Amino acid sequence: AALLNPRYQFDNFVTGPGNQFAYAAAQAVAERPAKAYNPLFVYGGVGLGKTHLMHAIGHQAKLRYPQYSISYISGEKFTNEMINMVRYEKMSTFRDKFRTVDILLIDDIQFLAGKERTQEEFFHTFNALHESNKQVVIASDRPPKELNDFEERLRSRFEWGLVVDVQPPDLETKVAILQRKAEAEQTTLPTDVALFIAGNVRTNVRELEGALTRLIAWCSMHGVEITLPTAQMCLKQFIDTQVRKITIEAIQRAVAEQFGMRVAELKQKNNSRQIVVPRQIAMYLAKQMTEASLPEIGRQFGGKHHTTVMHSIAKIDEQKRHDKDLARTLSKLQEILG
Ligand code: ADP
Ligand code: MG
């Protein structure tokens, strides 16, 4: 399990309509572990504060209950640790480690999609903790129902306690986040600049922070004040590329995330259905949303022949006509990609 990031606290988490319910639930869990909501399941898009909230729960609970053992781990790390323990025949060590904590914070659970053995292990961990009245907090990029390639018994357990979502911040919340962050950097951020950034960077808080960091660095390097014209100039490129340019890489990232897999898997020579369908979808979107030619798309998917690309695109095009789930997935991805 990883250490908690000291920067992720409740008191520097800015709340707004999109996240205040999740925030309140997280606080309740930190104050009364295993008594308020168990498990607490938080889901939402990338960069919207899920990890921040999980760490904040850890910090706050540690303050309230210093004797508690609190463990934070990502789905990916959980998987890797389990694989290692299996390899070295140390499963009992692994089990003890996770079944003796008072609070387990497990992040990015979608990573366990399709990993049967890891899910099985997590299922037992979950049961052991829940039965002995220990708190489990789970973060995911999507709600339990949409966790494809998950065992039903796990999905249903995820809904035993409270399921909350985090939605993208509205303009006011974005401005408040920027002001708070500027304050932390001991910088004053004029309101018009904050509004400019908030209005032009889309929904992701991490990107919002990135824009501000860039602006602060740029101004300090050039020894100038932070003003609107400066911000417009310095962030032009940042904002332009973010709004307009959709790359095959961006598509691959979005698709991989949507299906809880890694980008590398989209490029492998693996023809299991679990991988083929997301790959076909990614190719389809690459054709639709970029200028890339078929051979170019093939190259970016691990060197596929252009006829394979063509076939994939045709397949999705045909299937989306009668497959509502697929149609929905496609439009969701298109929306994410802008
Ligand atoms: P997620 O886990 O949902 O992808 P993170 O928790 O990693 O997102 O958040 C991305 C960045 O944005 C972090 O630096 C986090 O501190 C910051 N952040 C997100 N939401 C907020 C918020 N409401 N207030 C302050 N900072 C936030
Ligand atoms: Mg996260």
TrEMBL record:
<feature type="binding site">
    <location>
        <position position="47"/>
    </location>
    <ligand>
        <name>ATP</name>
    </ligand>
</feature>
<comment type="subunit">
    <text>Oligomerizes as a right-handed, spiral filament on DNA at oriC.</text>
</comment>
<dbReference type="GO" id="GO:0008289">
    <property type="term" value="F:lipid binding"/>
</dbReference>
<feature type="binding site">
    <location>
        <position position="49"/>
    </location>
    <ligand>
        <name>ATP</name>
    </ligand>
</feature>
<keyword id="KW-0238">DNA-binding</keyword>
<dbReference type="GO" id="GO:0006275">
    <property type="term" value="P:regulation of DNA replication"/>
</dbReference>
<feature type="domain" description="Chromosomal replication initiator DnaA C-terminal">
    <location>
        <begin position="247"/>
        <end position="316"/>
    </location>
</feature>
<keyword id="KW-0235">DNA replication</keyword>
<comment type="similarity">
    <text>Belongs to the DnaA family.</text>
</comment>
<keyword id="KW-0067">ATP-binding</keyword>
<feature type="region of interest" description="Domain III, AAA+ region">
    <location>
        <begin position="3"/>
        <end position="219"/>
    </location>
</feature>
<dbReference type="GO" id="GO:0003688">
    <property type="term" value="F:DNA replication origin binding"/>
</dbReference>
<dbReference type="GO" id="GO:0005737">
    <property type="term" value="C:cytoplasm"/>
</dbReference>
<protein>
    <recommendedName>
        <fullName>Chromosomal replication initiator protein DnaA</fullName>
    </recommendedName>
</protein>
<feature type="binding site">
    <location>
        <position position="50"/>
    </location>
    <ligand>
        <name>ATP</name>
    </ligand>
</feature>
<dbReference type="GO" id="GO:0005524">
    <property type="term" value="F:ATP binding"/>
</dbReference>
<keyword id="KW-0547">Nucleotide-binding</keyword>
<feature type="domain" description="AAA+ ATPase">
    <location>
        <begin position="36"/>
        <end position="164"/>
    </location>
</feature>
<keyword id="KW-0446">Lipid-binding</keyword>
<dbReference type="GO" id="GO:0006270">
    <property type="term" value="P:DNA replication initiation"/>
</dbReference>
<keyword id="KW-0963">Cytoplasm</keyword>
<feature type="binding site">
    <location>
        <position position="51"/>
    </location>
    <ligand>
        <name>ATP</name>
    </ligand>
</feature>
<dbReference type="GO" id="GO:0005886">
    <property type="term" value="C:plasma membrane"/>
</dbReference>
<comment type="function">
    <text>Plays an essential role in the initiation and regulation of chromosomal replication. ATP-DnaA binds to the origin of replication (oriC) to initiate formation of the DNA replication initiation complex once per cell cycle. Binds the DnaA box (a 9 base pair repeat at the origin) and separates the double-stranded (ds)DNA. Forms a right-handed helical filament on oriC DNA; dsDNA binds to the exterior of the filament while single-stranded (ss)DNA is stabiized in the filament's interior.</text>
</comment>
<feature type="region of interest" description="Domain IV, binds dsDNA">
    <location>
        <begin position="220"/>
        <end position="338"/>
    </location>
</feature>
